[in-house]
């Protein structure tokens, strides 16, 4: 039997992915590429929904691709591609925009958060229709699963609603995709503000970056916020900082939180931070090194991405052609 399809992506909106991107998504992508026919993209068109410096965007797109590969995405097993190199994404997004309610799009919490930060005059229409472009990204590849972190759940719900709406209005066209969210790593929190998710838009001190030097990572973890109590136990409500450290430690080491709690009985927060820092570095340092090597040859990286994009185009164009046909557009030839 042929493998089911899978799709996911990240925005190249910073010069490094952070630990939340890695544990919430990328690490699962690596595991899932064996079982699925996986499509992994770099969502550069999503990145421009907020202002980007063109030179920086170009560099960050390559840096993101290098980190995917360094983390274990194998371009021979998975189709690794750049969103803007597959025109069908923008084309299907337009069709989906036309079946999305204005109120429905207005309810997307990520838009509300980001547009509040940007203030309503500078928030773009692109930011408003961001989730619809995301739905197009997904539906073009007929995936069964979409591995993401918890913050993407609402966008996945919209994607499913749009797919069902299209299918019922125009006939069976899209597979209805499911979000694949691993409970343990669904949300990694900020080291300085452990009730907010780790994010590239937060203060750098609270975010562990894959491409940071190890000494910087150690410093950030040692300086993370804990509490005035001294007990090492998982209690997200009352001990958010310590619980986040335990969650991170568990995710990078594969040890259960329960075992970690037992191992740290009688020890202090300093011990916890030292061990977490060592365990995090053991995972991210090899990724940083490999990504740095890959970035030394951008021609090779670009051609690898171009061949992934060519492969992605085949399926994306076939889906788009079927959509255009169903809604009554005359074929080009
Ligand atoms: P982005 O770049 O903001 O996030 C990429 C992935 O990282 C996950 N993530 C986290 N997981 C756990 N803890 C955190 N603190 C954390 N921060 C981020 C996100 O859930 C995501 O899986 N809209 C998408 C990009 C996208 C996409 C798609 C994803 C565009 N098209 C199609 C799936 C399918 C996003 O927010 O990326």
From TrEMBL:
The keyword Protein biosynthesis applies. It is an enzyme of class 6 (ligase). InterPro entries: aa-tRNA-synth_I_CS, aa-tRNA-synth_Ic, Rossmann-like_a/b/a_fold, Trp-tRNA-ligase, Trp-tRNA-ligase_bac-type, Trp-tRNA_synthetase. SUPFAM superfamilies: Nucleotidylyl transferase. Its EC number is 6.1.1.2. Belongs to the class-I aminoacyl-tRNA synthetase family. HAMAP family: Trp_tRNA_synth_B. This is tryptophan--tRNA ligase. It comes from freshwater metagenome.
